[in-house]
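New to this. Please check this record:
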Amino acid sequence: MLPSSPRHSASLLPAMLPCAALLAMSAICLSGCGGAPPASFRANMVEATKQQLRPEQEEQVATILLAMFGTPDDPVALPETGLDEAKLRLAAGPVRSDIVGRKNGLFREHCSHCHGITGDGLGPTAAFLNPYPRDYRPGVYKFKSTERADKPTDADLARILHNGIYGTSMPSFDLLGKQKIEALVEYVKYLSMRGETELWLMRAFFDLDDEDEGRLPETREFLVEDTLLPIAERWQEAEDAVIEVPEMPEDLDLAESIALGKELYHGNKANCVKCHGVTALGDGQANDYDDWNKPIVQLRKELDSTLSSLAETSTADMSPDELAEHVREIEWADRFEQVLAGDALEPRTIPPRNLRRAIYRGGRRPLDLYYRIHAGINGAPMPAAKGTVAPEDIWHIVNYIRSLPYGFDGELGADRPLASHGGFSTGSSGVATHTRSNP
């Protein structure tokens, strides 16, 4: 039982790390006996360097994370996370079979070569892929059924694993079956919770009082109640944040709906034309970055400015204290340059989708398009139509977008408006569907 204690009471880590010594001894034994050392999580060095953490502070964060989450080979799920440790163990660790022949180590077998063992999107193949694999650590996901700032549901993550992401290197893992997909979903959530906790801890040093002497409290109140629990609760509340989608009217006139959708697309309310372009070829604003690349761009600009300032600064008239501070700034800038080169991928812009190609990464169901338009795409420049476009009118934009591949310049090669050749119809569910194939 973890002790409840005030912020500055005795350390919680001894209670949370009963096996820390055994883990360390196992690592020494494996290394000394010729075996490969156990896998370890990669520290978020970009954030640590950005926050200018001292080595002992980085070490404290690593120790806390070990206590709260374990290792890639031996994951820990505190009750507050709501995670199923049995599922985590099926997905974690090296690839192997258990006593009954069931395959374990699913994440390392199927996912880590792109997403990395830490889930940081820095696997060995990551730099060759476009778009880059997802970095799970911020806990931000694009394609989901929940409101923009909310977490995805388990069903959202499972759908990505079942279907893959069309137009990217993310394949379908449908052949794995339900049990293994559920285990991978649980492990992805685990990596996100761990990554979010790491970010929170690294940023918490900034708010320390002088009496803390540069160290984070190691109490249950701080580590579990103040840090982990709010993160876990956001994941647990995802089911309550699913977007309420109005039914598409069964008597909808499709040609009229497409025309209304076109007006909204080009109008000030939805303003889709700004990024996707007048012709919907994705040729509007194309110089923006997503929320994974944008911080690296900003940090690089700050670093370049710092290096330029340091180079122009004369040390001739500096006092010893000023000179020492100048040297520390140089050392920090040099370290940051190395970290950005080794712990971050080269930033890439995120081009708007060419809507005439019918490649919808978040799913091609009308419902999927409704979610994207209603809530926008979290982590991307795609804004939400919620609040500016009426919920029922979003269906008009969906129908217009789905007509674009069949129109002039569309990927499917038709040169007449969709309504003239009956490419879609509305079924009993009120969802537009194909009525015939196109060349």
